[in-house]
Amino acid sequence: MAQPLRVLIGARPDQELTWSWGHRPRSALDRAEAMAPPPPLAASTPLLHGEFGSYPARGPRFALTLTPQALHIQRLRPKPEARPRGGLVLLTEVSGCCTLRSRSPSDSAAYFCIYTYPRGRRGGRRRATRTFRADGAATYEENRTEAQRWATALMCLLRGLPLPGDGGYSVGPESIWETPSPLSAEITPELLPRPPRLLLLVNPFGGRGLAWQWCKNHVLPMISEAGLSFNLIQTERQNHARELVQGLNLSEWDGIVTVSGDGLLHEVLNGLLDRPDWEEAVKTPVGILPCGSGNALAGAVNQHGGFEPALGVDLLLNCSLLLCRGGGCPLDLLSVTLASGSRCFSFLSVAWGFVSDVDIQSERFRALGSARFTLGTVLGLATLHTYRGRLSYLPATVEPVSPTSAHGLPRAKSELTLAPAPAPPVAHSPLHRSVSDLPLPLPQPALTSPGSPEPLPILSLNGGGPELAGDWGGAGDAPLSPDPLLLSPPHSPKAALLSPITEGAPEVPASSGFPPPTTDVSIAASPGGPPDHLLPPLGTPLPPGWVTLEGDFVLILAISPSHLGADLLAAPHARFDDGLVHLFWVRSGISRAALLRLFLAMERGSHFSLGCPQLGYAAARAFRLEPLTPRGVLTVDGEQVEYGPLQAQVHPSLGTLLTGPAGCPRREP
Where are its TM segments located (predicted)? Predict the structure, then answer.
C-alpha cells in the first residue's frame, strides 16, 4: 500500500499570487501575510510515492511519484521502462481529479482518475485521462482511503492549499504562505474546502457565434472536472451583464467569469462600480474565458500563466486551466471622463485613430471572428488617415528602464519617453435564463437552459462517470462510478440556497446614506468609483508637471495590460498592477509598409526594436486627449464612445483579476 512521504513544503520565492481558491485574503493583514516570503521549495521534492494498478485491471502496473509540479509515472510490469514515455503529467496541464469505485460488489479496489490537457504534436491541447487502481489492501475501505489521499494531495497542489508536514510550515506550490499547520500528517479529504462558487456570464453571440458551443464543449466539462460550482447565465442584450451584477448578493459568489470577448467584462466591471457599495463590490474577483473576437485580456492572462501564445480553442483551454487552479492578482482600472462629463472604467485600452478605426469598421466582419481585425487592418492601411490632436500626460514618478536595451525610442523636446521595469457542491436558486452544475454525486439528466440552442452535456460532481465506462472499460470489466472525495458536512453550502438574481441596482435602505440608484444605465456612464484626484475638470488648464504633444497622428493608444489583442503584445513590460497607463502614438509621415511592420512585430513584442522614428511611448499615471479633427472614432475597451476631448486616470489595484498561478510551465529533470 502506498505511503506518503511527509516533507516540508513551501512556495516559490518569486510568487505573485495574492490568494488561492482555498485561501482568499479578506483584509489588508491577510494580503500582507500572503506576500510574506516563503522558504524555497525544490520542484522535484517527492510528496507521495506508491504502486498502483491500471484500469482495465489486466493492464500494466505503475510506480507513481507526486512532486509539487508533476506526477511521475513509471511502468513496473509487465516490463519496466528504462526511459518512460508519456510518464510525466505536469500539474499545469491538469484540470482536476476524482475518486471512483467499481460497480462490481466483488471488486475491493478503489480508483482515482486525473483529467489532463496535454499538448499534441501540433501544439493544440487535447483532453486525456489517466485512471489508476489502488489495490494494495484487502478491503475497499483501505483502498478508498489511499485513493482519496492521492486525489486530495493532487487537488491541494492544484488549488494552492496547504498540505500537512512534520510540525513545520506547509503549503503547496503557487499558493500563499501559511502559518504552521495544526493538522495531523494524514492527508484526508477534510483538507479540501467547499467548492468555489462561480457565476458564469456567457454572450452566446460572441466571436463568430460559437461562444455557447465552446462553453458547452470545453468550459463546463473542465470546471466540473476541477470541482468548481457554478451558475451560468446567457446574456440577451447589450448592458444585460451590467444590470445583472448590480442586483447580485456578492457575498454568495467567489468570482464572476465572463465567457465572451473583452466587451462583456467591461460591462461587469462598470456594473460593479455602479453599485452603492462599489468599494466592496469592485473587490469581487472577475475572470475571462475568451470566446469573442477581441481577447486582449485573455492573451495577457495566458502570458502571465507562462503559456505560449495561443488563439481560438487553445487560448480558451489555457485560460480555463488557469481558472481551475485558482488564484488572482490586483487589477488596475482606468477611469475615463468623456466630453459630456460622464465617466466609465476601463481595464484594457483607450484608442483614437488607426486602432479605433479598425476596431469599429471591422464590426461588419464579425462573422469572421478574430480574422475580422486582419481584414480591417488591410482596409485601414488602404485608406490611411491622419488626425490632428493634442495629447497631455502626467509622467510616472519613477523613470523605469527603456523597453529594449538595443534601441531607444525617439525623444523630442516636449516628449519624455519612459517605460516601466519588468516585474521580477451547492443547490442554486432559479436564475433567469440560467443553468446550474447541480453537483450531485450521481450522473444527472441533461440540463437545458431556456432558449439555449442545445441541451448541456451530462455532468457530475467529480467528472463524467458514464464516460469512464465507455472509454476504459474492457470486456468483463465492471464500469466505474464517481465516488465523492468529501461528503457535505453539516451547515455546508449544499443545503444553502443562493439568493435569486435580479436585474438592476440593489435595494438600498433609507438609513444607509447612499444615494438612490439610477435605473438609466449607459455603457459610457458609471456614477460610482473613486474620485480622480489627479485630473482637473475637462477644459481647464493642466497643473505643472504634465507633458503636452500636439501635431498630426496616425494613432494614439493608451493601454493598461500587456496585450492589445490575443496575439498583439503591445506593452511586453506591462503588469496587471503596475499602476501605469502605457501611452503609444504614431505620428504622421509613417509609410503604410512601416506601419504594417510595426503591427507584425507587435505579435512578438519586438516593435520597439524597429527604431521607427514616428513611434513614441510614455508611461503615465493620467492623460488627456483632445482631438482637433472634427470627425473621428474613439473607443474604450473596444466600445465606441462619444467623440470629443477625454481624460483618464489610473486607479492602482482597484479590482481583482482571476489569473491562476504565475510562472513558466517547465518540465522537471
Answer: none
* Segment (H or E) for 654: strand 646-658
Q: 3-state DSSP call for residue 170?
A: strand
Instruction: Dump pLDDT digits (tens) for 484-497.
Output: 665 433 333 333 44
Number of C-beta neighbours around residue 512 at 10 A = 10
* 495 falls within a domain: no
Q: How confident is the model at residue 85 (pLDDT cuts 50, 70, 90)?
A: low
What is the pLDDT at residue 58? 78
Catalytic-role residue among 107, 135, 262, 483? 262
Range of the domain at 390: 350-397+530-654
Top mean pLDDT of 457-466, 509-518, 546-555 is at 546-555
Asked whether residue 590 is domain-assigned, the answer is yes
Q: How confident is the model at residue 66 (pLDDT cuts 50, 70, 90)?
A: very high
What distances in angstroms separate CA 130 from CA 84, 94, 113, 260, 627, one per listed residue? Answer: 15, 11, 6, 31, 59
Residue 640 gets the label, from left (phi > 0), alpha (psi -120 to 50) or beta, of beta
- 219 within a domain of the structure (yes/no): yes
> Could you report the per-residue pLDDT of 556-569, keeping only the tens digit for each?
999 999 999 898 99
Segment 382-410 shows an average pLDDT of 68
Q: 641 forms bridges with which residues in the sheet? A: 634
DSSP conformational letter for 442: S
Please give the pLDDT value at position 665. 44
At 498, list the grid cell: 443562493
Cell representation of residue 574: 506591462
In a domain, 424, yes or no: no
- Taking the C-alpha atoms of residue 636 and residue 442, their distance in angstroms, rounded to an integer, is 46
Q: What is the pTM of this model?
A: 0.78
Average pLDDT over residues 106-124: 90
* Cα(469)–Cα(478) distance, integer angstroms: 8
Mean pLDDT of the chain: 75
Q: Are residues 133 and 96 in the same domain?
A: yes
Contact status, residue 112 vs residue 129, Cβ threshold 8 Å: no
Distance CA 431, CA 454 (A): 18
Pairing mode of beta strands 197-202, 255-260: parallel
Q: Is there a single domain that holds both residue 393 and residue 534? A: yes
User: Considering its fold, how many domains does the chain have in total?
Assistant: 3
What is the rounded CA–CA span in Å between residue 475 and residue 606?
Answer: 57
Residue 222 and residue 139 share a domain: no
Q: Which residues contact 309 (CB under 8 A, 6 or more apart)?
A: 299, 302, 303, 566, 567, 569, 603
Least confidently predicted of 45-59, 65-79, 375-389: 375-389
**DSSP 8-state assignment for residue 92:** G
Give yes or no: residues 643 and 565 share one domain: yes
CATH number, residue 389? 2.60.200.40
Residue 34 CA to residue 31 CA, distance in Å, equals 5
- Of all helices (H) and strands (E), which one includes residue 626? strand 615-627
Do 53 and 200 sit in the same domain of this protein? no
Active site residue 520: no
Beta-carbon neighbour count of residue 443 at 10 Å?
A: 15
Q: Residue 24's pLDDT band (boundaries 50, 70, 90)?
A: low
3-state secondary structure 559-584: ECCCEEECCEECCCCCCCCCCCEEEE
Q: Which of 318, 325, 370 lies closest to 125, judged by CA? A: 318
Pairwise CA distance, residues 86 & 246, whole Å: 48
